[in-house]
């Protein structure tokens, strides 16, 4: 019989800080993968604050997420771009850069792409 699961992103099982204190990723682990809440501070950019951790030319995670607050701009390697804000669902394939738009934190819940996101490579 299936059982209910309760986990809280306010008490994450793992936290991964971004470079230069520009935010963090809080994760809870589930059998089907992880669910994460990323807090991107104003001035955060993937290519500056996660690329040194990921060691890839662009973000190679697929994202299925929901923006809780703030705004984020995403530019695909092929030049396609979009901006997502509070209340928006986003589906983003691998191969992109991203950055916070404006002076407000951008907070994103993601249930697809955060399992290996900002994970230090050994």
UniProtKB/TrEMBL annotation:
Domain Cupin type-2 stretches: 62-110
Basic and acidic residues composition-biased segments: 7-21
InterPro entries xrefs: Cupin_2, RmlC-like_jellyroll, RmlC_Cupin_sf
Region (Disordered): 1-21
Name assigned to this protein: Cupin domain-containing protein
Organism: Arthrobacter hankyongi
Lineage, broadest ranks: Bacteria, Bacillati, Actinomycetota, Actinomycetes, Micrococcales
């Amino acid at each position: 019989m299936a059982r209910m699961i309760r986990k809280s992103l306010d008490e994450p099982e793992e936290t991964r800080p971004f470079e230069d204190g520009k935010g963090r990723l809080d994760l809870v682990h589930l059998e089907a993968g992880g669910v994460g809440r990323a807090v991107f501070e104003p001035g955060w950019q993937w290519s500056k604050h996660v690329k040194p951790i990921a060691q890839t030319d662009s973000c190679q995670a697929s994202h299925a997420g929901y923006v809780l607050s703030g705004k984020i701009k995403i530019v695909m390697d092929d030049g396609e771009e979009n901006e997502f804000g509070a209340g928006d669902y986003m589906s983003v394939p691998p191969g992109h850069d991203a950055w916070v738009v404006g002076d407000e934190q951008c907070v994103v819940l993601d249930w697809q792409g955060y399992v290996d996101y900002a994970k230090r490579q050994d």
